[in-house]
Amino acid sequence: MKAYVLRAYGPPTNLELTDVDQPVPADHEVLVRNRATSINPYDWHHMRGEPVVARLLSKTIGLRAPNIRILGCDMAGEVEAVGQAVTRFKPGDAVFALLDHGGFAEYVAVPEDVLVPKPQNMSFEQAAAVPMAAMTALLAVRDVAHVASGQEVLVNGATGGVGSFAVQMARAAGATVTAVCGPKNADLAEALGATTVIDYQRHDFTNAGRRYDAIVDVAGQYPARRLRRALLRDGTLVLVGGQAGRWFQPMGHMLGAMISAPVVRQRVAMADTVAYRDKPGKLAEVAELITADEVIPVIDQVLRFEELPSAVERQELGHARGKIVVAGAGTEIPAI
């Protein structure tokens, strides 16, 4: 089968498209043909082995060379074969999942309890845009911030992958949403349900005098002490991401904020999808919202499988409207 193999840390050109053995599912595993994947910071952090400090702290990022050779955490596809003990799925079933790795390949074998049935009202390309970004947004909005009807919520970085889901989920919970994004994406933020849109290039919301019940910080350009100025006294700051760096960031940004958490009045917490244990359960919650037409994925672009390194490069640069999706090997790109 075709797969992108990472043999050494570095830029997207280090992702080598090559032939590897097709996996054989074990008794409790399912072999899935990947119909689509999408690109996340999780992928390119592992590709570059950055921030370097993560090599000392993470089990998945090797010290000198990649521990994960085939990246890709978002996957949507069709069941090709099942192990002898599998009971929930059969060949032909449409599924999607958040994986540890393997999405940048033609096929992947995964335990059956990792998979979730794909919502029928979504294409494979749309479904591939969901797992990491939407689960992170739901953790931030529902599990950490406990957003409720009538509250005021600000999403900083509102039109990227996580932010576009967070705006919709906060709106679906009955909150009034303020979106912070660039001027070119203001129309998208309004379409997603934001009542107010702030151009971060012209206005600093941390000094505007308005206070919110919750701030979901995806962009990470402000330190926590400034973000807290825009919170109510009993408000919640949810940290999702931060500006990337070679050595420490965004880990330094996140850890610095969490160190201050015990000594400030407002609640400061992280939405950490990677560490979350019941990933299939949380993805099933997202699927319910999608089936109910409460949220939809925003897709910036769908590229061919042969263009995957270019998709990673584009995602690294930032400012994509929603998610960048890559069709599976041998799959034609549909109109989105």
TrEMBL record:
Domain Enoyl reductase (ER) residues, every copy: 10-326
Pfam families on file: ADH_N, ADH_zinc_N_2
SMART domains associated with the record: PKS_ER
Top-level taxonomic group: Bacteria
GO MF annotation: an example: oxidoreductase activity
Database matches in PANTHER family: ALCOHOL DEHYDROGENASE RELATED, RETICULON-4-INTERACTING PROTEIN 1, MITOCHONDRIAL
Designated name of the protein: Alcohol dehydrogenase GroES domain protein
